[in-house]
Design goal:
OmpA-like_sf, OmpA-like, Bact_OuterMem_StrucFunc, 60% helix, 60s Ribosomal Protein L30, Chain: A, 5-stranded mixed beta sheet, Putative OmpA/MotB domain-containing protein, membrane, 238 residues
C-alpha cells in the first residue's frame, strides 16, 4: 500500500469521525430542547389562561418529543454505522502499516521457535469495552474476515496474542482480572473461542498473554496506549 493510499484512508477516517461528532451534537441539542420544554411546563401556574397555554405547550412538547425520539433512533443508527466504519478503517490502516513494516523487515518474521509466521489481523482498542473481555459487535466482521483467511491454510497453527497498555487495572476490572496479563489472556481467549466456533480445530489454536510487556508504541501518550491495547492473530507455518 502506497503512502498516498494510506493518506487517503486517514482522510476518510477523519471525515467519518467529524460526521460522528456532528450527529452527537445534534442529539445533545435535541435533548436540551426537551429539557427546556419540560422546565417551562413545570413552572407554569394554575390559572385557566395559563392552563390553556400549558395544554398547547404540552401538545407541542409531545410533538417535539415524538420528533426527538424518531431523530434519536435515526442518529443512533447512523452513529452505529459510523462506529463500524471507523473501526474498519482503523483496522485497514493498522493492517497496512503492519504489512509495510513486515515488508521492510524482509517478510514474515520467525517466532521464538524459529517458525515463520504472518500477522493475519490486529484487533484494536475498539474490540473490547474498557476493562472487559467480551468481543464488541463492531469487531466481529474483522474476526470473520480473519477466520476466512485462516480456513484457507489447513494444517497451520494459529496464535492469538493479547496485549494491553501499562496502565494498572482498577475498580471492577481489577476485581475480575487482577492484572493486565490476565486481562490480555481473557481477551485473546475470547477471540480464539470465536475462531474455534467458526470452524478452526481447537488443537490448532493457541492463546498467549503478553499484558504490557510488548508495546507496539510508547505508552506516554493516549494514542500510544490505545494502539497497545490489541489482540493479534498470527498464522504460524511449520
Amino acid at each position: 500500500m502506497t503512502k498516498e493510499q494510506l493518506a487517503a484512508m486517514e482522510a476518510t477516517l477523519n471525515q467519518a469521525k467529524h460526521q460522528r461528532q456532528q450527529l452527537a451534537d445534534k442529539l445533545a441539542a435535541l435533548a436540551e430542547i426537551k429539557r427546556g420544554m419540560e422546565d417551562a411546563l413545570h413552572s407554569a401556574s394554575n390559572t385557566q389562561a395559563e392552563m390553556d397555554e400549558i395544554e398547547s405547550a404540552l401538545a407541542e412538547s409531545e410533538l417535539q418529543i415524538s420528533r426527538f425520539l424518531r431523530d434519536r433512533d435515526t442518529y443512533h443508527s447512523q452513529l452505529s454505522a459510523l462506529d463500524e466504519r471507523l473501526y474498519s478503517l482503523q483496522d485497514d490502516i493498522r493492517q497496512a502499516l503492519t504489512t509495510a513494516e513486515s515488508t521492510l523487515l524482509g517478510g514474515p518474521q520467525p517466532d521464538a521457535q524459529g517458525r515463520a509466521r504472518s500477522l493475519v489481523a490486529a484487533l484494536g482498542d475498539g474490540a473490547f469495552a474498557p476493562g472487559k473481555a467480551v468481543l464488541q459487535d463492531a469487531v466481529k466482521p474483522q474476526v470473520a474476515k480473519a477466520l476466512a483467511a485462516l480456513l484457507q491454510n489447513q494444517g497451520a497453527r494459529v496464535s492469538v496474542e493479547g496485549h494491553t497498555d501499562d496502565s494498572p487495572l482498577s475498580g471492577p476490572a481489577k476485581d475480575q482480572y487482577g492484572d493486565n496479563i490476565n486481562l490480555s489472556y481473557h481477551r485473546a481467549k475470547a477471540v480464539a473461542d470465536a475462531l474455534v466456533e467458526g470452524g478452526l480445530p481447537p488443537a490448532a489454536v493457541v492463546v498467549a498473554a503478553h499484558g504490557a510487556s510488548r508495546p507496539s508504541h510508547p505508552n506516554d501518550t493516549l494514542e500510544g496506549r490505545s494502539r497497545n491495547r490489541r489482540v493479534e492473530i498470527w498464522l504460524v507455518t511449520q
